[in-house]
Amino acid sequence: MATLFDTRQFVGECRDAVSANHAVAATRAVVREAVRALASGVAALPPLDSFYARHGGGLLLGHDRTLFEDDTVTVAVVETEPGHLQPPHDHSMCAVIGVFEGGERNRFYRRTGSRARLATRRVVRPAEVIALRERTVHAISAEADERCRALHVYLGPLGSRPRSLFHPETGAEEPFDFDTYLYYVRAA
Ligand SMILES: [Fe+2]
Question: From the CA of 88, how far away is ligand 1's center (Å)?
């Protein structure tokens, strides 16, 4: 029988990790342990109220729930529904992503001037963890026909830090705006 995943403890471990000497490596270790437990069924997420639903064009893209945010770290559970390719964006801070259900397809872009062009792809699968640099540009979608669930930890205040969004066809950079983000969603 799975034990309930302790979100408060996880947030505490993330807060400690981002103030460690090797913050990204420390955060990766915390997220790796968490998604291993969740992916294997040793632990299960408790019901999370107040999910923020991401809708684009009337379609449900998924749900985001921010467990914690301050000036040093943002901790979120991100659910991604299949069928939608979300637009390229950066975070203006390092990020650690760990998947515990389904597959999160990440497209990575190369920045040239004020544009981004598709460079590589990687599907992050349950119990896998990746780290993104401050200027990394990525776009996510759910792999195959499965919902994806992941822990996303950002090493800073994601909701308030200015960052960039990129047009899905031209790759042109513009200031991040959530309504525009939804407008730029395409069929996967
Ligand atoms: Fe992202």
Answer: 8
